[in-house]
Amino acid sequence: MSAPQSAGERELAELIVTALNLEGVAPAEIDPEAALFKTGLGLDSIDALELALEISKRYGFQLRSDDENNLRIFRSLRSLAAHIERHRTS
Fold this sequence. Notes:
The relative contact order is 0.20. This protein is mainly alpha-helical. The N and C termini lie far apart (about 35 Å).
């Protein structure tokens, strides 16, 4: 059983599904604590770049590809949503 999504996580899940055209994935079904890459949602590095671009457009700050914390930031929907909440400008 997956953990419930917060409002911010739900909004981000919808952005992920829409931005990456994830067919057959309902935003509400994304476990906020599951991995986004490889074993979890199965995203790859191209998806990460597209997602970073969409996040910068929607939330007004840049996710840098050379950030040493990216593995932690992009670990799960929950960790990415928390990072956005701390840094968003819009």
